[in-house]
Amino acid sequence: MKIEIPRDCERMGAVQIYGLQKVYELDSGGNSGKLDTSHNDVIRSIPSEALYERQKNMAIVVPVKNERLKLIEGVLVGIPHPCQIIVVSNSPRGPVDRFHIEKEAITNFCKFTNKKVLVVHQKDAGIAKAIELAGYSELLGDDGLVRNGKAEGMIMGTLLARWLNNKYIGFVDSDNYFPGAVHEYVQEYAAGFEMFDTDSTFVRISWNSKPKVMENSLFFAKWGRSSVHSNKTLNLLLSHFSGYETEIVKTGNAGEHALTVDLALNIEYAAGYAVETHHYVNMIEMWGGVLPPSESVASRDKVTICQIESRNPHLHESKGEEHVEDMIDASLSVIYNSPLCPELLKREISEDRAMRLKLDQPEGVPPVKVYSNLSTLKLDTFLEHCEVAFGSETEALSLV
Ligand code: GDD
Fold first, then answer.
1. End-to-end distance of the chain based on CA atoms, in angstroms?
2. Which atom of ligand 1 is the closest one to the Cα of 154?
C-alpha cells in the first residue's frame, strides 16, 4: 500500500492525533521476503507481506443485528484471510431463529474458505457468566445477559479477541454492500499499525465518499450528518485547550476502526452509538494532561490516533432519519457530559441541539451510559471462565 505520511498532528499531553492520510495505491507490491523500506519523504510504501504479518495477529469483530445474509456474507468475503473473524450477533432467536440461520450461512462460508470464524450470540449465557464472575456486571441487564447495543457487542468482541490472543482488534459493520471496501479498511488498519508501531495505536477510517441517489443520479457525499457534528465538536474541544482553531479530527464517529487490544482493554466504552466519539473523549480525559491523573489509570508515554481516508465508496443499509438524530445526540452527549467540556462549548452544543430538535429553548444533553474502564474487569477470571463456556454446552457459541 502506498500511503502518505500525516501532514499535521495535534498533541494533548500523551495523545497525538495525526491528520488524515490519503492512500495512493491500495497495493504497492510485495517485497519477496525482504523488508521494503523504500519511501520518499512524503509517501510510505508498505509491502503486502508486512500488511499480512500484522493481520496474522488481528481479530476483526463484525457486529450483527438482523442484517441480510447476503450482506453479512459479503463482509466476511472482504476480510483478508489471515485475520481471525469474530461475529457477535444480537439477532433474534425467535419466532424465527435468525442467529441459527446466520450460523448456517457462516458455516458454509467457512467450508469454502477453510477458515475458522468465531460466532457468538450477544445473549450467550456462558459468556455473560464469565463477565459477571470477572466483576463487570454493569454490562449485564436484569436478565443477567449482555445488554443490547452495538457497543455492548463490541465489548464482548474485544474480550473474545483477547481470549484468542490477538494483538490488534478491528471492527467492520455487517451492513456493508461492498466486500472490496471491507477489504480496503482491514488493509488500512494493518497499514496504520505498520506506520505507528506502538502498544497504544488507534487507527480510524474516514470514508472517501458515501453514495446517495439524488434526483435520479448518484451523488458522492463526503460527510455523513453525524460525522459533521461530532468532528466539529471534538475539534472545538481541542481548540479550547490549545488556543488554536483546528480541523484535525475527521473520524469522530468512525464505525470502522482498529486498535491494539492492549489499548482496547484500558479504555471506556460508551453505550450504543456514542461509543466511537467517547473513545476520543475518554483518551483525552485519561492521557490528555488536562484532568488530574487518576490512580486507576496507568500512564502511557504516547497514545497515537491515526486517521486514514479510504478510497472505496461506503455503501451501507440506510436506517432512517430518526436513527441519525439519535446517533448525533449520543455522540454530543459524551462530549457535553465530559469533565473536560468547557461551559462555552456546553452552551454551543445545547443551542445547536435546540435548533436541530426544534426545542423551545436550549437544555442540557442527557448523559448516555458509559461503562467503566475495561481495565476494571478481572481479565484472568474472565479468560478462565470463557474457557469453561467454550468447553460446556454453550449452544450459541461456536468456532465454525
Ligand atoms: N452485536 C450487535 N448488537 N450488533 C449491532 C447491534 C446490537 O445490538 N445493533 C446494531 N448492530 C450492528 C448492525 O448490524 C451493523 O452491522 C452495525 O452494528 C452498525 O449498526 P447500524 O445501526 O447499521 O449503524 P449505522 O450504519 O447507522 O452507523 C454506523 O456508522 C456510524 C458512523 O457514521 C455505526 O458503525 C456507528 O457506530 C457509526 O458511528
1. 31
2. 1
- Tell me which residue has its CA closest to atom 5 in ligand 1: 150
- The number of domains in the chain is 1
- Pocket of ligand 1, beta carbon within 6 A: 63-65, 67, 88-90, 122, 148-150, 153, 173-175, 224, 226-227, 253, 255, 273, 276, 316-317, 319, 323, 327
What stretches in the chain show pLDDT beneath 50?
Answer: 393-397
Determine the 3-state secondary structure of 169 from DSSP: strand
Q: Is-above-0.90 flag for pTM? A: yes
For the stretch 305-327, what's the b/e string if a residue is b when 16 or more beta carbons lie within 10 angstroms of its beta carbon?
bbbbbbbbbbbbeeeeeeebebb
Cα(62) to ligand 1 centroid in Å equals: 10
C-alpha of residue 150 to centroid of ligand 1, in Å: 6
* Locus of grid cell 450467550: 124
The parent domain of residue 199 ranges over 2-399
Q: Whose alpha carbon is nearest atom 38 of ligand 1?
A: 255
Q: Closest Cα partner for 1 from 46, 37, 50? A: 46
Cell 441459527 identifies what position?
Answer: 100
pLDDT for 100 equals 95
What is the 3-class SS of 26-65, one letter each residue?
Answer: CCCCCCCCCCCCCECCCEEECCHHHHHHHHCCEEEEEEEC
- Residues in a beta bridge with 78: none
CA torsion sign, 317 to 319 to 321 to 327?
A: negative
How far apart (Å, rounded) are the C-alpha atoms in residues 139 and 141?
7
Which atom of ligand 1 is the closest one to the Cα of 171?
A: 35
The whole-number pLDDT of residue 396 equals: 42
Tell me phi and psi for residue 10, to 5 degrees: -110, 135
Q: What is the CATH number of the domain that holds 356?
A: 3.90.550.10
